[in-house]
TrEMBL record:
Residues annotated as binding AMP: 31, 36, 57-59, 85-88, 92, 160, 171
Gene this chain is encoded by: adk
Entry domain remark: Consists of three domains, a large central CORE domain and two small peripheral domains, NMPbind and LID, which undergo movements during catalysis. The LID domain closes over the site of phosphoryl transfer upon ATP binding. Assembling and dissambling the active center during each catalytic cycle provides an effective means to prevent ATP hydrolysis. Some bacteria have evolved a zinc-coordinating structure that stabilizes the LID domain.
Pfam families noted in UniProt: ADK (PF00406), ADK_lid (PF05191)
InterPro entries assigned: Adenyl_kin_sub, Adenylat/UMP-CMP_kin, Adenylat_kinase_CS, Adenylate_kinase_lid-dom, P-loop_NTPase
Protein name: Adenylate kinase
NCBIfam families: adk, PRK00279.1-2, PRK00279.1-3, PRK14527.1
Record carries keyword Transferase: yes
Positions of the UniProt region annotated as LID: 126-163
Statement: the UniProt record of this protein carries the keyword Cytoplasm: yes
EC class of the enzyme, as a word: transferase
């Protein structure tokens, strides 16, 4: 299965992608996570990306397309993939189609997690990330068993450097502008499915499962 997961910052892309990648055994490819690794490693690309990310802007298309091209060459993508946070512009979507055409593959479904702007601000400002394994929590909606400590690896929970309210509002504005043309693009291809992301995490997950199960059933019939 080749899947895309879309939504505003804080809509729950990463949260749902983690569950989905486990259930369907797909590599979770989050361009945001990949950029954060490059920043941590202080590569040239990471240093360039840092400025864009911390100001709430997008990293240039050519950089992102290069990152995805590299990633698709890895073995684990041969069985399918779950893209989180890519494409984010129409140029990226068109380039993705070209890459997939060369690989004789198509996108099976684009899952759009729809959540209102005020709600996502609340979600992002309450998000905490494990410094050790990257697991994501929320101080109210998805708290760890012990405050400030990761359930899986006992690592310290911290806030992402782009999760302050000012940057969050900018990220939302930038992404909302791009979403319109992306949603039209995928709707035109007949592969867009929208779920109500205001629901609790488990309900969003079962709604996505239903969509994917119906999809595989219609592929068999
Ligand atoms: P990225 O890391 O992708 O950030 P983002 O799009 O802003 O999205 P987030 O990761 O903040 O949110 P999410 O939807 O994953 O939500 P989560 O599941 O964590 O990208 C970062 C930056 O990199 C971009 O701003 C850009 O600069 C750059 N970049 C990346 N890709 C790019 C591209 N293709 N082109 C150009 N630039 C690019 O959930 C959020 C919180 O809410 C968590 O605390 C979670 O526990 C909680 N939560 C989740 N679901 C629910 C629910 N249903 N109910 C209650 N709480 C919930
Ligand atoms: Mg994310
Ligand atoms: Zn951890």
């Amino acid at each position: 299965m080749n899947l895309l997961i879309m939504g505003l910052p804080g809509a729950g892309k990463g949260t749902q992608a983690e569950y989905l990648s486990t259930k369907y055994n797909l590599p979770h490819i989050s361009t945001g996570d990949m950029l954060r690794v490059k920043i941590k490693e202080e590569t040239r690309l990471g240093l360039e990306a840092k400025g864009h990310i911390e100001s709430g802007n997008l990293v240039p298309d050519e950089v992102m397309i290069g990152i995805i091209l590299d990633r698709f060459n890895k073995r684990d993508c041969k069985k399918g993939f779950l893209l989180d946070g890519f494409p984010r512009t129409k140029v990226q979507a068109e380039e993705l189609d070209k890459m997939l055409k060369e690989l004789n593959r198509t996108i099976d479904a684009v899952i759009y997690i729809e959540v209102g702007q005020e709600k996502v601000v609340q979600r992002i400002t309450g998000r905490r990330i494990c410094k050790g394994c990257g697991a994501s929590y929320h101080v109210i909606f998805n708290p760890p068993a012990e405050i400030g400590v990761c359930n899986s690896c006992s690592g310290q929970l911290i806030q992402r450097s782009d999760d302050n309210e000012e940057t969050v509002r900018k990220r939302i504005e930038v992404n909302a502008i791009q979403h319109q043309s992306l949603l039209e693009y995928y709707n035109g291809k007949g592969c867009l499915f929208t779920v109500n992301g205001s629901n609790p995490i488990n309900k969003v997950f079962t709604d996505i499962e239903t969509i994917l199960n119906n999809l595989s059933r219609s592929a068999v019939l």
